Batch of 2 targets.
Target 1
Amino acid sequence: MSDLDLSQPREWIAQAAGIAILTGAGISAESGVPTFRGAGGLWNDYRAEDLATPEAFTRDPKLVWQWYNWRRELIAKAEPNPAHHALVQLEIRKRIFTLITQNVDGLHDRAGNGKILKLHGDIWRLRCMQCGANWPDRRVPLPKLPPHCQCGGIARPNVVWFGEPLPDGMMKEAEHASESAQVFLVIGTSANVYPAASLIPYARQSGAKVIEINTEETPYSNAVDCALRGPAGEILPKLV
Ligand code: OAD
């Protein structure tokens, strides 16, 4: 990691008027939030089918909520790390800036970014299964599982589960940001989950220089302009 040559990607970033960024769970790993795949990943110990699908919630809302409640407890203790902070600096500097994240942890908001597209929703918001109302709730732990809406309906976490569409219009906005950017940063995602991962080739085909930052190789490492292997919290502050 210490002998990574950052001069070329640093120059691309410095010269770009517009930047789009795709982040995944790896950017929060150094804050102590577990990733989903790879070493220590949640999907090694839990089955997504049991916890992160609409069918799982219909079958056992309390079980699903216990898992989300536990994750909310972990995230509540976490602080944004130098990688999150570096992206705030980038937003301050760049006229055209979009942060597209698959993370539901809210650490980009806490760090201070403003222009965020949360492709997979937000663990700190709840949504009523009955009337569709959607509201913030940061209580940790939640006093009663599953939580309920004022209308009496059961509330779910306002996140995207497997098999569900992304929030209305958000992928279009993400694509627009990706095709308008001269630099597309891909940080801490295994690039396994679609449609989010499709933004990587989309940005490159649209002419952006694509820079990947990841501790491990991903399916796109050989199809980007620059793949930087190492922890985002160490590399990003040196890049921006
Ligand atoms: P993953 O857990 O699949 O991937 C995390 C990536 O971060 C891996 O490629 C790691 O190598 C990398 N990584 C770990 N620590 C890092 C560090 N310190 N610096 C840089 N990279 C690091 O997470 P996502 O790609 O975000 O969706 O997963 C995508 C979606 O799958 C999630 O949003 C979630 C999950 O199931 C839903 O729940 C719908």
Note: The CA atoms of residues 16 and 155 lie 43 Å apart.
Target 2
Amino acid sequence: MGIFDLMSDGSHEELVFCENKAAGLRCIIAIHDTTLGPALGGCRMYPYKSEEEALIDVLRLSKGMTYKAAAAGLNLGGGKAVIIGDPKKDKTEMLFRAYGRFIESLNGRYITAEDAGTSVQDMEYLFMETKYVTGVAPAHGGSGDPSPVTAFGLFHGLIASVEQAFDRTFTEEEMQNLTRKAEADADPSDYTDRYRSLKGPSLEGLTVAVQGLGNVGSHLVGHLVDAGAHVLATDIDQEACDKVKAKFNCEIVAPDEIYGVECDIFSPCAMGAIINDQTIDQLKCKVVCGAANNQLAEARHGSILEEREIVYAPDYVVNAGGLVNVYVEMEGYVRKRALRMASQIYGNTQRVFEIAEKQDILTYVAADRLAEERIEQIGHIKKGFFGGI
Ligand code: NAD
């Protein structure tokens, strides 16, 4: 299949092939759709076996970013970059600065960030060559680690899923209190007993199984325990389990037991394709809602969840807090604003469930509809005015 065939399949706008032999840089930047705003997405560094493999990955990932930004209500398009190389061996200042110069040449049509295989340190090198980079260190006015905001947004998606699957509703006041408490947490000078005693939504009586206690999962456990949920948690890294167990009142189970535990909500916060032929029959939950990207191994697994009456909260809707965080960084980072914006994931998730019910479609298809509708509507109002952003 030719490059244009691959591109038109995903309706991409532009592909940029970048090479700097001296720096050892071979990179592809994919700009999927800029209807809503500049294309933002991380830069993945991976030792792809072939150029085609890298190309397919960047096309798929950049399209995913368009949908994630649109469903989150952000004025961003979707883009992604891949650097062909081994992050353990091939990283140099020269390589990242060469990549930074290519980004600069796109004049803001693509804005980069960290992704698998790249780090805050690498973003620092990019920052020397271009201003179109997010996720830089707080010392440079950046937003730093996005995970606490991702976990906060995810918790809001989980609350909406609880309302959908169980006979529970939460008041606006309870939802507002969540944000008030988090804002006070973000600014400890503000953290008075008044905030500490605010009542958020209660998850008492519910059991949540959390897979993966890394950056996002460990923060999520904090929110869940705070809300009174019973938490069963696991990680393949014993140290991560010990840390979470020491900090929160939760139970640790073995990694291969997590799928089959008696629980109300399963929250995958480790890796993708986790809802697959091996795991799906083991699930005893009523909700799947987690941070991991691309949780359904195949689309048909979404249908199986539906048949089993398990509510699936689409991953890219509920894990958009990290993207919200870098979006706020573009405007001048304010943590409280990032938290408030991430709290909107509650309403976004409710909207997805509504669309799914009204149109009698699966929730992950409804998420795509929500994103596509917004792109179409905003595209219409932009038509004729300076041709875009
Ligand atoms: P992380 O690397 O900090 O944590 C992942 C954890 O999962 C690690 O502790 C790892 O040991 C554990 N793990 C891996 N395989 C496992 C298995 N089979 N069973 C149990 N535990 C296992 O990653 P993170 O930043 O917490 O992100 C978690 C997921 O959420 C990833 O899929 C990531 O792509 C996605 N995500 C993260 C963010 C963010 O802001 N960090 C934003 C959006 C999506």
Note: The chain has a mean pLDDT of 93.
